């Protein structure tokens, strides 16, 4: 084989190896940051509380409920503020199948369903947690 060709192949392999190592480092470094829990200060900085949402339930009762969303960035926080009308719409659609008993026993499931439904709509970040901060059933 031509010595010049061997040098070119070695250089290409070296560049590919370095690029792969840098990519691996960046991916692993970002993955470790994603697993870290947010501090309470970050949670407060990235939180958004909705207005109270009033809707009827499947069993004829009414609920007045308020959510607090924790975003993963300032961009996500600004986006969830703009999407409050969608938050209301999503909860109203979900409440069609809910009863007063569901709102007394399955709050974690309701919070998870809201988080997943909102994250399906988000484009500038994610919602990392949802809390029900107020709830009145009548």
The number of E-state strands comes to: 4
SS strand fraction: 15-25%
Largest sheet: 4 strands, antiparallel
Distance between the termini: 85 Å
Number of domains: 2
| Unreliable stretches | none
**Amount of helix:** 55-70%
Structural class: alpha+beta
Arithmetic mean pLDDT: 88
What is the name of the CATH class of the largest domain? Answer: Alpha Beta
Structure described in brief:
With 138 residues, this protein is an alpha+beta fold. The protein contains six helices and four strands; from the N terminus they run ααβββααααβ.
List the helices and strands and how they pair.
Layout: H1 3-34, H2 40-45, E1 47-49, E2 53-56, E3 62-71, H3 74-82, H4 84-95, H5 100-105, H6 107-121, E4 127-137
Antiparallel strand pairs: 1-3, 2-3, 3-4
Question: How would you portray this structure in words?
Answer:
Strands 1, 2, 3 and 4 form a four-stranded antiparallel β-sheet that branches. The model has no long low-confidence stretch (mean pLDDT 88). The chain has six helices and four strands. The N and C termini lie far apart (85 Å). By secondary structure, the protein is α+β, with helices and mostly antiparallel strands. The chain has two domains: 1-36; 40-137, Band 7 domain (Tetrahydropterin Synthase, Chain A, 2-Layer Sandwich), CATH 3.30.479.
């Amino acid at each position: 084989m031509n010595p010049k060709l061997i040098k070119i192949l070695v250089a290409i392999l070296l560049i590919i190896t370095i690029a792969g190592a840098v990519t691996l480092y960046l991916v692993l470094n970002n993955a470790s940051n994603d697993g870290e829990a947010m501090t309470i200060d970050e949670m407060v900085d990235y939180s958004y509380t909705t207005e109270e949402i009033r809707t009827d339930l499947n069993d004829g009762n009414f609920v007045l409920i308020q959510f607090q969303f924790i975003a993963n960035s300032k961009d996500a926080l600004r986006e969830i503020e703009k999407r409050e009308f969608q938050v209301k719409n999503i909860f109203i659609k979900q409440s069609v199948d809910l009863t007063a008993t569901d709102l007394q026993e399955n709050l974690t499931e309701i919070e998870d369903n809201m988080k997943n439904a909102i994250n399906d709509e988000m484009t500038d970040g994610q919602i990392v947690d949802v809390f029900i901060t107020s709830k009145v059933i009548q």
